[in-house]
Every structure is written in structure tokens, then in C-alpha cells.
Amino acid sequence: MKNDNLDKFINKIKLGNCLEELKKIPSKSIDLIFADPPYFMQTGTGTLYRINGNKYNGVDDEWDKFDSYKEYDKFTRKWLTQCRRILKDKGSIWVMGTFHNIYRLGYIIQDLNFWIINDITWEKTNPTPNFRGTKFVNSNENLIWFTKSQNSKFTFNYKTMKNENKKKQMGSVWKFSICSGKERLKDNNGNKLHNTQKPEDLLRRIILASTKINDVILDPFFGTGTTGAVAKKLHRNFIGIENNEKYINYANDRIKNVDKISKNDPFFDYIKAKFDEKIKYPKILDLIRENKIKSKYLYNLKEDKVYLNSEGKIKINNVKYSIHKATEIFENGRYLNGWKYWYIKEGNNYISIDDIRKDVK
Amino acid sequence: MKNDNLDKFINKIKLGNCLEELKKIPSKSIDLIFADPPYFMQTGTGTLYRINGNKYNGVDDEWDKFDSYKEYDKFTRKWLTQCRRILKDKGSIWVMGTFHNIYRLGYIIQDLNFWIINDITWEKTNPTPNFRGTKFVNSNENLIWFTKSQNSKFTFNYKTMKNENKKKQMGSVWKFSICSGKERLKDNNGNKLHNTQKPEDLLRRIILASTKINDVILDPFFGTGTTGAVAKKLHRNFIGIENNEKYINYANDRIKNVDKISKNDPFFDYIKAKFDEKIKYPKILDLIRENKIKSKYLYNLKEDKVYLNSEGKIKINNVKYSIHKATEIFENGRYLNGWKYWYIKEGNNYISIDDIRKDVK
DNA sequence: GGTCTCTGTGAATCAACTT
DNA sequence: CAAGTTGATTCACAGAGAC
């Protein structure tokens, strides 16, 4: 996974224009990209008052202003194109937005021939209410997770996610609260440092789901460095790009104070994605050569009996089938996992060939 | 709300090409459009199997195939343009999709200068599992709700929605189960009639939120007629367009068997959106003229005392303020609703002027 | 110290009517 | 039509302060 040209970027925040800095990064060097670009909110010019008469301070930052969708699209197309170049073939990308920009992002992602894996909804448990009762409360943000092409292999720690979700498959709607309290960075005046700081729990799930230990995660809109802080904690590397020096200073401080989770911590199994390590069991030919399958005949639980030849194939009417394919003959076209379907007989006992291969290991 | 040219379409399903049929409908005649257009599912050539070996029958109907995104975009642009023409200025539109098509829809909606009100996530409580454990379970579908332009007034039954949500503002993530059981239409062979039949609960919420009683709701991809069935139940009118005669036959049967909710049903208040009826209370001058405010002085809860003149203005230092504006003086610039801020005193009792006007009514 | 109350605040395309 | 006036609206937390 090493890339010498990448060393000078690793675990650093680059000050500068997003596009220019992306261009400096070596091709095919990044494992994961997380991008939370400006949303282009287009709020009105008037003031929005809270019900108690106070003003509501929404996002009015210069960095969120664009002249038109056309300008926004052009910008999006450029940074996504750079992301394609620097991403490893087995890497993947997350982007984030609301209805203001998410359709621009998704459309361009598809036009650039990226391949969408999932669309995720972040359901906020404590969104800002709609003070005037004009519409449904905007209680969600949206994420898109995608690869460079349809055939890309990508990291997905399926079992880790399942363990995080009461042993059930993790779905595409995630509930988290917004970033507040101690986690929310304050400036020297005690005001919120950044208008749109993201919660660490969200980044934690993204990183645990789609990276391996020591992977390199790039965030081209680094802000206050949530991506970097969580990456460090979880023993991943980060690269940040940010054009506001103030944010960088706070982010560097923040990350410096993060402790990596200890290797003695029971949670360290999660960090290694231990549950998702691929275990290589012996193949059927290995078992035969090592004389682990003592019988020449296999049985299913309906007591059908078949002959297993020295090539590891099941012969039926002089035609050779794999142990899996052979299930179709006996199960009306249903194609099942042969390891769990076929048994040998020892006296009156049926022993699954799947148990045999796992015992060998 | 009557439009004579519309009579021949009302509560009927038109057999034919979506675009051609849309063109026949009069301009600015429709209150609400609900559109669940064909999805652009790319299942690829591989067959997907359930764990038990049965083939998974996903969406692979002919009507779902398009040559490319370009074709899909072109088609989307055309039917949305027709929708703009036939929609009343105060009408609104819902579209629905998954990540395969929702970004195409949203992007084009914005390009056509529609104005998005909300994006809604339908969280499925019982989604199809991901059989191979290759990604997060797709447990959501997405809806976009929008008007013809930024300044469009539209129907939103805010309080009705609040009542449906434990008296709290309804958010943008909706939990419903997928359509199954008795609700799911079967064909004569007992198989599911349509691959993407929508649950009635979903349509119920959409219709209750964004239409008034007797409104006309158009569904250009009518399918098995969920929109029509729910519209009828809730005392709304529908127009359906569908190019598959088989679906139309089943849908007509289905809708014929729907009973409108009785006017004696306690739920009928919801149908009329009674909670959202605008109530006109007397104004401050009316109350003074009719001598309903017996005192010349008003108090706030801090016991500040002000003089209310015969013009209904509060005089402070010889300057006249409205009852609302006057709150700014006593609340450090906070501009509050005067009706709930000012009281008269009867003995030791404070009586809110808001209570007085509501009693008068 | 513990419990209760009060206050502050978050990616917001946040009004309708009269003069 | 622009400017001014009237009036209808909030939820989950965290943290500070009161008792």
C-alpha cells in the first residue's frame, strides 16, 4: 500500500485551493475519499427569526456562494474528475449533501461513469425545527457512496457493520445526532468555529465500513478536521485540503489531541475489521489429495448417493459437476452451496464436508 | 376549482403513452401530481439468487429498460415539462425514485426552474435484504416535493401533519413497511401483479399533507392505482395514465371496491384538514369598539404597565406602537406576538388579550 | 452532590396582507 | 409594486445556574 510520493502529504492538512491541491496528489494513491462540499444553499436575503424573537444564524459563509447551478456543476465536475485520478482502482468515494446540491452531485457522478454502491440517509435526531411551520422539517442529509466503475472491487466490512447493528445487516438510513456540546469546536470568543461541523459518529461509521487499518483517507473540504480526527483514532491515515487557514489551525490542534485507540482495547478488533478477514479454507481437491475425505461417495440428507472422483467432481450419468452445480440435479434447479449440501457417511453418522474442511484448518 | 374541460378525465384511467396523454390535459388544471416513473435499474447479466436458492425476481420488465441515461433524461424532461403546463400555479408535484434515477429527476427538476420544498426519505421497515452481503441494505426510497417556482404558494396542511406525528412537527424521514399482504395485488396466477406497487400509507400521507378535499390528483405512471384508491378514500379526485391495459383492469376493480371515508367518521376532520383552516379572530380595534377590553391599561408578566389608546395603539413616551411592536421596547429588541404578550388585570388576575379575542369568537 | 429549571442553539432555499 | 403592518410559529440536547 506504500506510495513514496505520498509521504509528504500523509497526515497533513494542505492550505490552498481544493482543485490546485488535488492536482498535486499522485495518481491512484488514495484508498478512500470523503467529501463534504459546499451545499449552495441559496437562502433568502431576509432575516429568519426564532419564535422567541432572536435571530437565527444560518449558513451565510462566502464559501457557500455560487453564481448559478452551472457554476456549481462546473466546479463539481472538476474536483470529482481529480478524485477519479487519485483514487486507487479498489478505492471508493463518499460525498454528502442536502437537496440543494445532492442531485447535482449524483447526476455528475453518474455522468462521469462512477458506479453508485449505496445512497445513505443521515436522519438527524435533533434537527433545527421549522420555526414558521411552512414545510416538513429538514431532518435528513444524504450521502452517496461510489466506486470508479461498475466492476471495481471495494472494501466493505460487512460483518463489522452487522455487529454494529445488533447482528443484523446495516441498512441505508442512519440515525445520528448533529454535532453539538463538547464535540463542537468553539473559536476564541466561544462562538461555534464552523457552521457545518460534522459529527464524529458519522465519520466513524463511514471509515469502519469502507477502509482497512492504515488506509489513506483524503478529505478535500477538510473544515475543522472531523475526518482527520476520526481517521487517527481508528488507525487510518488522512490527507486534508482546506482553504481557510483559521480552520486548519484549529484542526491541527484538535487532531494532535486525539488518542489512537489502544491495541489492548477490546474494540481494536473492530479497527482491524477482524470479523471481515477472509479465511481461506482448503479446496475440495486439497482435501482429496490429503486424504481427508475418506469415502468415495457423498450423500445428501435425502440419502441420494453420488460418486466423487479424484478430480473433485461429482459424476452423474457420466457427466461431471462441481459439488455446487450437482445440487441442481437433486433440487429441481436450485443452486446451493455444495459444502453444506453434501455429507460423507461414517457408520450411521452424516458428516458435512464443510465441517471437514473447517476442521482441517 | 371547477374546470369543465377536465370533466372527461376526472376519476378515470387513460390507456396510452404517458406523454401523449399528458398533452391532452388542459393547462393549469391539476392540483397535485404524484409520479413514480420507471426506474433505471441495471441488474447486469448475472442472476441474483436468494440464500435458499430461489431466483430473485427483481425489476427487469421491458418498461424499465432505457438505452442510456441520455434517453432517460430526455424522457424525464418531456414529461416534467408537460406537468409544469397542466399544474395550477398553486399546485405541487411529488416524484419518487431510488439512487438509480432520483439524481436524474432532481437535477432536471432544478434545471427546469421548479422549486424544491422538501426531499423526503421513505425508510422501509422491511426492505429486501442484501443476499450476498456486498453493501448496505437499500432500505430507503426518495421523494422530491416541489412547486412551479420559488414564489409559488402551495397547500401544506401543517397542523394535520403535526397531529399525525404525536403533536410534533413532521420531519423528512418517513417510516413505512413495503406493500405486502392483502394490500398487494395478485394476478390470476397468484403472483404479484406489479413489481413496484406502492403502499397506501405513503400515498395517504402525501395526499393529506399537500391537497385539500375535492382536489384533483394526477398520476402519470398509474400502475395498479394506489394513488387513485387512496384519493377516492380521502374524498379527492384522481386522473390516471397507464400504458398497460392489464394494470388498468385490475386498478379499476380495485378502486371500485374502495369506500370513501364516511362523513360521520371522526377521521373526517383530517380529510377536510380542519386543523389547518384559517380562523379569523377579531382585531384589536374590533375589541376596543365592542368594549371587550375593559381596561385602558395593558400589562406584561413583568408588571410593566402601558396605555392602550382608542386607535388600538400602545403609547410609550408619546410614541404610538402596535401591540407587537411595543414588545421590542420591553424585551431588548425582541419582536414578539403582542396578543400573547399583553394582559389586562382584573383584581389580581392577568387575562391575556389573546384569550379575550378567542373567547369573543 | 443531586435534581430541577432555565437558556441557548443547530447546513434554512421558513409569511401574508394592507396601504 | 414596494414598503409597512399584522400576526403565527419550535425540538432535542447540552450546559449553566438555582436550590
From TrEMBL, chains A, B:
<dbReference type="GO" id="GO:0032259">
    <property type="term" value="P:methylation"/>
</dbReference>
<dbReference type="InterPro" id="IPR002941">
    <property type="entry name" value="DNA_methylase_N4/N6"/>
</dbReference>
<protein>
    <recommendedName>
        <fullName>Methyltransferase</fullName>
        <ecNumber>2.1.1.-</ecNumber>
    </recommendedName>
</protein>
<feature type="domain" description="DNA methylase N-4/N-6">
    <location>
        <begin position="30"/>
        <end position="252"/>
    </location>
</feature>
<dbReference type="InterPro" id="IPR002052">
    <property type="entry name" value="DNA_methylase_N6_adenine_CS"/>
</dbReference>
<dbReference type="Pfam" id="PF01555">
    <property type="entry name" value="N6_N4_Mtase"/>
</dbReference>
<dbReference type="GO" id="GO:0009007">
    <property type="term" value="F:site-specific DNA-methyltransferase (adenine-specific) activity"/>
</dbReference>
<dbReference type="GO" id="GO:0008170">
    <property type="term" value="F:N-methyltransferase activity"/>
</dbReference>
<comment type="similarity">
    <text>Belongs to the N(4)/N(6)-methyltransferase family.</text>
</comment>
<dbReference type="InterPro" id="IPR001091">
    <property type="entry name" value="RM_Methyltransferase"/>
</dbReference>
<keyword id="KW-0489">Methyltransferase</keyword>
<dbReference type="GO" id="GO:0005737">
    <property type="term" value="C:cytoplasm"/>
</dbReference>
<dbReference type="InterPro" id="IPR029063">
    <property type="entry name" value="SAM-dependent_MTases_sf"/>
</dbReference>
<keyword id="KW-0808">Transferase</keyword>
<dbReference type="GO" id="GO:0003677">
    <property type="term" value="F:DNA binding"/>
</dbReference>
